[in-house]
Amino acid sequence: LDALFRDPEMVAIFSPDATVRRMLKFEAALARAEARAGVIPVTAATAIVTACETVTFDAGELFRDAVSSGTPVIPLVRLITEHAANDATAFVHMGTTSQDTIDTAIVLLMRDGINLLVASLGKISIEAARLARDHRHTLMAGRTLLQQAVPITFGLKAARWLHTTIHLNQKLITLRTETLAIQFGGAAGTLAALGAKGPEVATLLAEELDLPEPLLPWHAERERIAEVATTMGIVAGSMAKIAADLTLLQQSEIAEISPGSDSSRGGSSAIPQKRNPVDATLTTAAARLAIGDVTAILNSMAHAHERAPGEWQAEWEAIANLFSHTASAVNHVQTAIKNLVVNDSNMRTNLNSSGGIVMAESISTALAEKIGRQDAFRLTQEIVQTAVSEGIGFRDAFESNPRASLLLTTSEINRAFNPAAYLGSTDVFIDRVLANFDALKDQ
Amino acid sequence: LDALFRDPEMVAIFSPDATVRRMLKFEAALARAEARAGVIPVTAATAIVTACETVTFDAGELFRDAVSSGTPVIPLVRLITEHAANDATAFVHMGTTSQDTIDTAIVLLMRDGINLLVASLGKISIEAARLARDHRHTLMAGRTLLQQAVPITFGLKAARWLHTTIHLNQKLITLRTETLAIQFGGAAGTLAALGAKGPEVATLLAEELDLPEPLLPWHAERERIAEVATTMGIVAGSMAKIAADLTLLQQSEIAEISPGSDSSRGGSSAIPQKRNPVDATLTTAAARLAIGDVTAILNSMAHAHERAPGEWQAEWEAIANLFSHTASAVNHVQTAIKNLVVNDSNMRTNLNSSGGIVMAESISTALAEKIGRQDAFRLTQEIVQTAVSEGIGFRDAFESNPRASLLLTTSEINRAFNPAAYLGSTDVFIDRVLANFDALKDQ
Amino acid sequence: LDALFRDPEMVAIFSPDATVRRMLKFEAALARAEARAGVIPVTAATAIVTACETVTFDAGELFRDAVSSGTPVIPLVRLITEHAANDATAFVHMGTTSQDTIDTAIVLLMRDGINLLVASLGKISIEAARLARDHRHTLMAGRTLLQQAVPITFGLKAARWLHTTIHLNQKLITLRTETLAIQFGGAAGTLAALGAKGPEVATLLAEELDLPEPLLPWHAERERIAEVATTMGIVAGSMAKIAADLTLLQQSEIAEISPGSDSSRGGSSAIPQKRNPVDATLTTAAARLAIGDVTAILNSMAHAHERAPGEWQAEWEAIANLFSHTASAVNHVQTAIKNLVVNDSNMRTNLNSSGGIVMAESISTALAEKIGRQDAFRLTQEIVQTAVSEGIGFRDAFESNPRASLLLTTSEINRAFNPAAYLGSTDVFIDRVLANFDALKDQ
Amino acid sequence: LDALFRDPEMVAIFSPDATVRRMLKFEAALARAEARAGVIPVTAATAIVTACETVTFDAGELFRDAVSSGTPVIPLVRLITEHAANDATAFVHMGTTSQDTIDTAIVLLMRDGINLLVASLGKISIEAARLARDHRHTLMAGRTLLQQAVPITFGLKAARWLHTTIHLNQKLITLRTETLAIQFGGAAGTLAALGAKGPEVATLLAEELDLPEPLLPWHAERERIAEVATTMGIVAGSMAKIAADLTLLQQSEIAEISPGSDSSRGGSSAIPQKRNPVDATLTTAAARLAIGDVTAILNSMAHAHERAPGEWQAEWEAIANLFSHTASAVNHVQTAIKNLVVNDSNMRTNLNSSGGIVMAESISTALAEKIGRQDAFRLTQEIVQTAVSEGIGFRDAFESNPRASLLLTTSEINRAFNPAAYLGSTDVFIDRVLANFDALKDQ
């Protein structure tokens, strides 16, 4: 089922194979750092690096071996040691511990994962910017609690999606530069096995891996992991919001968007006419799964003492799932938005569907200039009531209302019933977000 | 990482391959039912059944194909149709819809999954019953809020584990017989494509699959799924409780149990002496992951109209994950309990570690018969205070207390300080649970 | 904000005051049971019972006092003791512990809470049964993934709501009779302070409180609590499903239901014409809150040893919140359904909105009898395509299709385009659920 | 129960009364901004501001009134209008909508809430810094998976707590300055009722409330809320980590800390000697509750269109609960750490409890210099095995090992068995965190 709710590229980044490769990368970088610090011989480091780069392994077998110790690092170190030249074997995994290897490997995976997400969200931004520009004037109903409220434009909706993706990307970039850092503390966070050389090795290790060095090891303090995890949850939740909009706009009776020209998408096994909102559907599903993973991680933050019996290990799978599900949500939104066809005539029809009732606030505002806001609000409600109870259009009801119709001139009435004239700051808002997008692109 | 937090047998039950096989089983059973009801020709049914039983498929490819429609049933029906004899092709998937196929397939998978769990929990029951019997008299400290309270026996603790597993198995069996049922409603729950034959086909389909027939289709009412999911969460949570006990008992300074004779288990990559509580650790991790999955399912219960765009699809992966994680938790507990070595002398040492202070309630109870409960409680607290502040044993403090020591005879004192004499209903409780276990075994 | 998302009656059941009253009820029942078992003097029991029944207290103060010990039972026992006649003071809270008092009090509260929920769900059942009966033939579109699929009736939708509430009530009743039980174990689950009298007192205590007696104390095994909690989550989730339907049906452009005649409900602070789906909205909100509480409880099941430092205490508030939120969801659904006005003409209009395209499966089924199912499916898709691309009605497209129009007679065509003739087992399903409802009512 | 799991100061900040006050603050600020922009008369603004500042209200009643419309803003606006001078009534709540009022009010509450949390976490920092300094050299066992690993110092553990609180506070401050912003969009995010004046009013409103102005309204894009909510969850989870440490260190058999001199804290209703870890217990409970609230918010991010029917409203209570629970967790940790008594002799005793076995890595490291790391690891394991199987101390086993004892000189042996000589970078790490703390204090 992976194909449906997990992004294949992200699954590849967090695959067992890739995870082992990142652990090997840590061990190699550590050997290099220790050689540079004079802790181990340069020749040993070279041999270990070679072993880490050339060793072949079966990741599945390695994780099955891990069941007996609870950590894949033990069979992995054995593997490197078997593979390394003789005089290097004594220096493999020197001064470190399973958690250093695994946490730092996961940090490296998360960095790759964040980079992939940033790129994917960037693609949504481009599409959303296009829609915001192209549909700046495409009128549609604004809907609150799924009731028509006042007119907006589809471009404004797209501008809001754009703003979300820009915002999320800025968060992700901050996360990548400020939250990700090496974990390196040895058996219980003191680097005791390295004597006085600990801090120097740590600095060099961070340099080798191009990651920041934290003030002290964070093995049992999981804020970093939780920050990444909850940010994924927020990305997924934001995608679910866009998916909700898309699904609702594509309802048979609303039909303001359609899923695009690729007619093979969205078919049904029973119903000939169906065009299901497949990408929005898969987004919603992937987002729910992602948020379940976040729950697991937040509830696993209470790491006992210097390493938790269970709360730590739960992260390994939860983080991999979380990135894969979040990336799937992002990619399905991107596909949906890229292919989406805007049915502007349906938008216009729906906007007018209740005989102009969506212009009630506009009318009320126009009347307010003549008779005050409260009186205007009440008068408007009365007209709405008439329209509803007599089953006539709101404009008809307005025009047949003896008091109201006299308060406004024909041109005022025309203007008050013109959705395009009641868009307030829509253009300003679209411009601001597009300008922000352009400014960031130029950086 | 699957090996660590997912039970391989359960992973096999919910594998993409097995999932497709269950969907094929549904389609075959449906063909048979429709033939029996006279809806399709018998020869067509035979051909479809043969096709379903002999068709070869690549489940991965099938699910990748499913991305464009959002459902694996479309490519699957195409596959069956291509594979079936010519005159049968018109009758494949007749009168039904994707959701019928998938929901019923998942019900079949869940039935297998529940059966596996019942067997695994049954194994824990056997081990827990053995421990309850063998350690009925093995004294240890009862601990509340991780403070020593009064003596209990290890047999009582095991009897509580036993009671939990018996209770969970009864819940699972009820679930299997009462909650699981076919889903069969056609395009939107009316079975319209079957005309008047819908109910008859439904009854025969249920018979073919040996599953109950519900009063009406449950496509958008997910109580059944949520009941199974939350029960999994409760099983996982109960395993986490046992794992917490095991982890705490195995602490270096407590050492009341050890993880057993298989010395390859629980080693460390850095620390020569480490014997980690590997199985309890993996239980805790798997349980956290399982409960995250439950969250996803409960938050996906609001299925819109006749089929949800996203909330339904999220279940597919969440259910598979949930069963695999829960089974992993169960199996790790079983391994842990089976191999566990009880260090009864350490239990006894810890019980006595604070110089008998764990017998304070016993002393207070003995004194109460002489001077009333409140006075006795206060006097005991005073003696406790003396013991703590003077750093002497509680019994020494008692004996040096001029008032208290005169209130009880030597034999009363000996009795009051004897943990084995202060076990209350321990034996009764153990007997009851063992009798319950034996009674259920005989059924 | 309580008024919006918490049911006031349920809030009253779980109020601090009522909670303290239930703890007093436990202490009184225990005194009676102990007197009957000869553990304490009858006069002492009488005095304690009187004290428990007449003592006045400030629940807020009592819980503030509880902060220093972590349990409200300590100040409560002090209060009873101060209030009881002199010779009874020694026997207050005899042989028991905080957890017995609190857990059993919560069980009593949950019993009341379940009774209230059963009554509230029963009211929904009555309304849903009425709707199922009255709208058995009210045609509307069945919608999957928010796309029109095939016709159903509003009565069928209501029958499904009815079935859900019946099912939930049966679950709640089972819970009340099978899961709720006294908790009585003393300091660490051995009832040691009662010597050999423990089991007898336990049996009498259960009798006094009219609750089952479990095989052994369940203090650290929280399956019971988790079963109640998850059932609440399932009730809440099921209400969210009904709320989703209501919200979607009430969309401005769909308008198949309206929230009823009470025009003060659902107004907007800005928009004169708004009639918001207030009750459905509050249901959805309350359900989300309820499910968050369930998460807290499932993640708190790993109770260490004989009493958990934190996981247990978290339940106290989570359970109270959960019942209040769930009851709010139930009551808002009840209000919504009771007041709901069915706009059957809109249902019919929407059903016909795409020029009969919702009858495509029906046409395909009719054609299949002439040219086989696959060919019919393809031909129907071709006609759908024509209708969509030429922007004409599906029936027009059908009639202009040279091949299709010749395959069916006029009366076959009329029948195939008649939604009322394409309802399959709708009536059977409605009848079954109504019969089930009537049968249960008669019990 | 509020007293136990909710911080009273935070409860006051988010009380119904305070919430209404913040809504009034928004309405007053809006009137001022609109007057400054020339949208409403200055006299009207003055009258509205006065009304908002002087109106008396019953918050409970107001929220009960809100049930019929789903929003407290309708009765609130009615109240202000009734209270305002006649010619101002027309200008109350002008150009805005419920969501603007409520979202901005919640932002103001969250700002206060964050300020309170920053102060509370700052107090933990001070205590943790004191402990880090005072116990820089206080030896104790580092424990991984609850097994003794290598020596650390209590100061290092406290330094890690310090680092966490510093880190969390920096996150909170960023949140306060970057994430919190006014919400102001009118009926559906266009500010249409203000014509061209929307942006100007928005800027002035932001100024009046001393909050940033976002690029565009964020009514249906809930990243901001989710960021605050998840940060609360991370704070709560971090507190749960400290609580876990405290609870484990205070176990009867470990007794490395005690809860301090206030002997009234932590008593038991049954057990005379009990000193329960009350504050750590309440922290754990409050954190679980907080994280449940986060779940509710993350699962409510998919806001439909321009305002969600349910997902939005769920936030109101969830946010208030979340802040109260999180603050409770923080305050209980602060109380616990402030009062905590360090039993350094018990730390030393436990460190030596297994006859020096915690020094195995140290010995192995010392031996490695003579015979290489692998051989040394194996030799050390052999000695550990001897110690365990013969039940003798590790040092005795070392000294009786014919090979090992010859490899090291007496002074090398003494050094290798000296925990204080095997602390690696402990001092460096403590210094770094203390320096970081001092640097931030000086800002």
Low-confidence region ranges of chain A = none
Strand residue percentage of chain A: under 5%
Count of DSSP strands of chain A = 4
Binned, the helix content of chain A reads 55-70%
Radius of gyration of chain A, whole Å: 29 Å
Report mean pLDDT of chain A, rounded to a whole number. Answer: 94
Oligomer status: homotetramer
**Global structural class of chain A:** mainly alpha
Output the strand order for the largest sheet of chain A: 1-2
Overall shape of chain A: it is elongated
Short description:
The structure is a homotetramer of 443-residue chains. Chain A has 19 helices and 4 strands.
Give your account of this protein's structure:
The structure is a homotetramer of 443-residue chains. Chain A is mainly α and 443 residues long. Helices cover 65% and strands 4% of the residues of chain A. Chain A has 19 helices and 4 strands. In chain A, the strands form 2 sheets. A two-stranded antiparallel ribbon of chain A has the order 1-2. Chain A has a two-stranded antiparallel ribbon with strand order 3-4. In chain A, a hairpin with a 2-residue loop joins β1 (139-144) and β2 (147-153). In chain A, α10 (223-249) runs parallel beside α12 (311-339). Chain A is elongated. The model of chain A has no long low-confidence stretch (mean pLDDT 94). Chains A and D meet through β1, β2, α8, α9 and α10 of A and β1, β2, α8, α9 and α10 of D.
